[in-house]
Structure formats: C-alpha cells, structure tokens
Amino acid sequence: MRKTEEAYRAGKRRAIGVSTFYPGRLIDLCNFVEVAHAVNQVETHAFRQQRSAHETMVKYGVQHESWGPFAEGRKDFFSNPALCETGAKYGKSSAQTTLRFLLQTSVVVMAKTVRRERMEENLNVFDFSLSDEDMRSISALDEGGEHIFLPLRCRRGRVLDRAGIIKAEEEAYRYDDCRGKQAVRRQRRHSALL
C-alpha cells in the first residue's frame, strides 16, 4: 500500500482504489493510510445491495463501485419478474433497470460485456429515472448478503457455505483449512465457528 501511495504522490497514479474491502477492512484501511482511497469495488446488484458497506463507504468518503451488477446472470436475473415489469414501464431491459437503480443509489457501475449492442444498451440508462415505488420494489429483492460470490471450493473438494465454513459430519473446517493451515475444529466446537 505504501508503494501505491508513493506512486500517487509522484503523479504516477491519479487515484487509489481497492476491491472487496468490506466495512471492517475498509475502516482499518481508512484509519491507517496517508492517501485516501477513491473507490471500493464490491459485489453489488439487485439481490445483494450492500447497504451497510455503502453507508461505511459514504462515511469515509470512498466511492462505492459495483462489481457484477448483473449478478453474473444467476437467480434468473435477466428474467426476474420484478426487474422485467419495472423495466417494461420505461421500455427498458432488466439490465438497464438494475443499472439505473444502482446509479440512483449513488453506486458507480461498470457492466462487463464484449458485445457492442450490449455496451450501447448499458449506456442508455440516463434518459429515465425510477419512481420511488419502483426503487422500493427493487430494494425488496435484496437478500441482505454482504459476502463475495460463494461457494468457494477448498482443496478437498468440499463446498463452503456462506460463512466460509464447511459443515461435515464429524468435523467443521474453517476457510483457513482451504489455504493449507489445517485449522480443524471438532464438532463440539462447531457452534463457536458460527
């Protein structure tokens, strides 16, 4: 981080940003750096709106940027009834509706695509605004998760749950185990992990 700050002071960087820094990590970062970070890119979309993370970013003057604004197409994103119905009111797609929703909640979006027609569609979100009712409708889709996309797979092939813990019959392996630290906890300690 110090080298990045030196590059910023030398004029080699125009801004410094981070990715997937959730509230606790972001607060630590903001309290111990000399150069304020401009942006924090976090998984944010209609189903994971990152409200508490957004509040922390606003408090520390860090711009919230959406990673994966289309939820990587999961949860039937492009055919979601709430998004499609809302978009139909404005003659827009579910993708455009979500981009507009994020923009109206002060989240910067960068939608990934390689197709020219999708790029043009993604840019065509500044000619309408969602009503308060539509904003509430999309807000209701939030599942409240504050984690990056899971499941993750550890070297043993087990799938981790959302808390980063593998639930096994006799043992519970923490995420650290997948990094080779062999942090094995017996079943009697399983409740302490959750």
Automatic annotation (TrEMBL):
GO function terms (MF aspect): oxidoreductase activity, acting on the CH-OH group of donors, NAD or NADP as acceptor
Keyword flag Oxidoreductase: yes
Keywords of the record: NADP, Oxidoreductase
Residue spans crossing the bilayer: none
InterPro entries reported in the protein's UniProt record: AKR, NAD(P)_OxRdtase_dom_sf, NADP_OxRdtase_dom
Residue intervals of the NADP-dependent oxidoreductase domain: 5-142
Pfam families registered for this protein in UniProt: Aldo_ket_red (PF00248)
Family the entry assigns: Belongs to the aldo/keto reductase family.
Protein name listed in UniProt: Aldo/keto reductase
Taxonomic path: Bacteria, Bacillati, Bacillota, Clostridia, Eubacteriales
